[in-house]
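Hi there,

I know you've been waiting on this one. I reran it after we fixed the sequence typo, so this is the corrected version. Both the input and the resulting structure follow.
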Amino acid sequence: MQVPLIPTTPNKILLVRFSALGDVIQTLPVLTMLREGFPDAKIGWAIDTGLAPAVEGHPALDYIHRCSRLQWKAQMREPWRWSGITSEFTALLREIREVGYEVAIDVQGLFKTAILPWLAGIPRRIGYGHGRELSGLFYTERYGQTADYFDPAVLHVEHMARLVRMLGVSAEGYKIEPPRVSDERQRRAIETLQKGFTERAPVVAMAPATQWKSKAWPERYWSTLIQQVLEQTNLDVLLMGSAADAPCGQRILSVLPRELCDGRVCNLFGHAPIRDMYAIYAQVEAAIGPDSAPLHVAGATAVPVVVGIYGPTGYRRTPPLGSPHVKLLTREGQLPCQPCHQRTCPLGTDDCMKQISPEEVFHALLAGLAEAGIEVRSGVAGAATTRQPALPIRK
């Protein structure tokens, strides 16, 4: 490990994390660490353009530098666009240089994120020592090795905190604070729930879709879980997901009795962009999902109860942060292949997800709600006599 330089007090700090959305949410505690350590510093974030809404309005953030790398990658197939790509990338570098950052912290640790501060001429560049994609060549200071970085028992946010500590601050605790949500977005979120449910009851948000095939909990399990919730409690169900994943939501609901879902299931697939997700999760009592972005947004907004279904990723490494009552279900310790950190199951079985039953998730949800002191009525179809006219769910 390279010995850190003598700590100085930087006036301008660049945080680099391009993607993915769940990782961006997990990086939010770093902003708080930096702001608490350097209250007078200017702090910027270099991030994928499409994910910028996930950090816009954060109280600890002064600058956002949007990198349209995915658009540029698509345009590379068309040579006549190359000059435009070069111009836009040059403008991004110029924008970063003009701020005059003294230090950059690359918490993603890949070639694409490591080279940006180097090209921008930032003098101190802090990153990981694992050297993935030759990233270590572009840092002036490095922390850790590959085995340390992928240790499933160590929080990923702790690795990021150790990079921050190389600036000479304590960076203790993992306080997560979401970006500020406008009053208008909050109002729309409340209206969405009022329109989606005919009567007032606690709401559990479920996010079934995931970009990793290996993280996918079987759709039939989601259908079973929703039916259990609707038949055995007075809870309402909110389905969350992107427009691209809308067919997943439709398949899950298609096997359920319509009369059971009417007025009690609100399908928001494709109707909740990133900034609206913060506002919507701020209004629900519980959230369920695999280790993906919505689960971490739920944590960041301090949803009272969060239930995570963990398969190929380590539940101790990337748990949702911020919620007071977190229940994580996993077969880690029982399956020798878990966690594998692979997008598709190397064995072709997806056993780590399939072995977690809907009954386990349902009981974890009920246990979390009980711990949180949230009253749940029992009875077929939600015991309608316990339900009240629709009102805002949380303040």
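Quick highlight: The chain has 14 helices and 14 strands.

Best,
R. S.
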